[in-house]
Design brief:
Elements (H helix, E strand, L loop, with lengths): L7 H7 L5 H12 L3 H10 L1 H4 L2
Length: 51
């Protein structure tokens, strides 16, 4: 996700989710933010997003 090689929906399918919305829901539950929020945070401050 960080490298930007795949879109969020593609990553969800690659890791085994059949629904991109369910992937986003699970991602938010695990990391406290949606995948798009995570990517936005990475672009703003690359070193702080992965901590």
């Amino acid at each position: 996700m960080v490298e930007g090689e795949y879109r969020v929906t593609e990553i969800g399918f690659l890791v085994g989710f059949s629904s991109s919305s369910y992937f986003a829901k699970c991602f938010q539950k695990q990391f406290g933010m949606l995948p798009t929020e995570f990517l936005k945070k990475i672009k703003e401050a690359p070193s702080s997003a992965t901590k």
